[in-house]
Write a structure and sequence with these properties.
Elements: H1 6-17, E1 21-23, H2 24-32, H3 36-43, H4 45-59, E2 66-68, H5 77-86, E3 90-93, H6 96-103, H7 117-132, E4 137-140, H8 147-159, H9 162-167
Parallel strand pairs: 1-2, 3-4
Helix pairs in contact: 1-8, 2-4, 3-4
This protein binds adenosine-5'-triphosphate (ATP), (3R,4S,5R)-3,4,5-trihydroxycyclohex-1-ENE-1-carboxylic acid and magnesium ion.
Magnesium ion binds near residues 23 and 68.
């Protein structure tokens, strides 16, 4: 979900693993030369989702990396398949309260530009959880767990799953 720490924890995880960190949101913005909010405004969400799927399909073909997807990417069956064919998916879960505390001060997230963004966040979480649960691994974020500790928790979760590790060459 938005604010779960995909970019923050992903960056740290990539550092520990000595692989590049890529962020599909950033790739989309760079290619379009516009922000995600501008893309949503001018071209609409379906256009953004199409670009997102293209970017994911391209990035998973590249060298090993930590890839942060947008919060909505895993809702698409096609994206889930593309990701599971070449990598390990990690759900960074968090309570609505924690997510809200992290995203409330920023107005850059187009899906939260609603009259009641906290309620929108809650509804999105509820609707999306069944999809996020399909990730290979899940790591829960809590207020007391730092970004660095979250990255360590992802690695701990990975090493307890040899079946999953095998898919990325051990
Ligand atoms: N474990 C953590 N401890 C403290 N702060 C955190 C933690 N995880 C994330 N944050 C902070 O919360 C904010 C949101 O995190 P981040 O941008 O990584 O979320 P995201 O999952 O990439 O969101 P989006 O889907 O909108 O891109 C950032 O300011 C980040 O530094
Ligand atoms: O949760 C979502 O659907 C989104 C999250 C962001 O990462 C961006 O991909 C965009 O703002 C949509
Ligand atoms: Mg992000």
């Amino acid at each position: 979900m938005m604010g779960a720490g995909k970019t923050a924890v992903g960056t740290q995880l990539a550092r520990i693993l000595h692989v590049p960190f890529l962020d599909s949101d950033e790739e989309i913005e760079r290619a379009a030369q516009r922000t995600i909010a501008e893309i949503f405004e001018r071209d609409g969400e379906p256009f953004f989702r199409a670009r997102e799927s293209e970017v994911l399909a391209r990035l998973v073909q590249g060298p090993p990396c930590v890839l942060s997807t947008g919060g909505g990417a895993f809702l698409s069956e096609q994206n889930r398949r593309v990701i599971s064919e070449s990598g390990v998916s990690v759900w960074l879960s968090a309570s609505v309260d924690l997510l809200w505390n992290r995203v409330r001060h920023k107005t850059t997230r187009p899906l939260l530009r609603t009259p009641n963004p906290r309620e929108t966040l809650r509804e999105l979480c509820e609707k999306r959880t069944p999809f996020y649960r399909q990730a290979d691994l899940s790591v829960e974020s809590e207020p007391s767990i730092s970004i660095e500790q979250m990255a360590e928790k992802v690695i701990e979760a990975l090493v307890t799953r040899p079946d999953v590790l095998e898919r990325i060459g051990g």
